[in-house]
Amino acid sequence: MTRILLVEDDKSIVANLTEFLESEGFRVKSEPGQAGALGRLERETFDLVLLDISLADGNGFSVCSAIKADYGLPVIFLTASGDEYSTVTGFDLGADDYIPKPFRPRELISRIRNVLRLTGGTGTVTKLGKVSVDTVKGSASKNGKDLCLSALEYRLLLVFLNNRGAVLSRSQLLETIWDIAGDFVNDNTLTVYIKRLREKIEDDPQKPEIIKTVRGMGYKVDL
What we know:
Number of domains: 2
CATH architecture of the largest domain: 3-Layer(aba) Sandwich
Oligomer: single chain
Structural class: alpha/beta
Number of helices: 8
Distance between the termini: 16 Å
CATH superfamily of the largest domain: Response regulator
Largest sheet: 5 strands, parallel
Strand order of the largest sheet: 2-1-3-4-5
Shape: elongated
């Protein structure tokens, strides 16, 4: 699973962005300032850094310079400082992309995956039985063959993947996936998409071994 360090001092942005990125299959840790970010990088391994310029201490330019010199990780600036000087400075320091706030979440995901592809980010492939999920490529395969999943089917699979061992109610699943459908996803639609997902990932959709029904409660993946 791709590991992202989010360096941002706005708690609201951190909470919302962390929730969104993790729903897309990324693992996120956050720090509000320069000292905490560089300390975290010394202790833990990451695949990519999302970085603001204005921080609780220090500044994003200094953090980017240190990351490129000491760790060689891909860096994406995600900042309200969208002026030409800041943008050029960011790229001159080695930033791999520069995204002004406010940003579009789906575009951010696309840019993250693009940077990881270009820089050779690992993005550990995670397995569910015979199914492999690559969060960098945003793809899934079974027995080495690509699964043609829709956006909602892929999101459902990620939700189950990120909540292994937990029973997820239908209301929890609806709250997680409705925002990428273009309109509200109702309970009947959820039933259809779970059925379609099972048909693609299960050996026998009538007797599912991956997405199991917990009667009266919801669904559970415990592989």
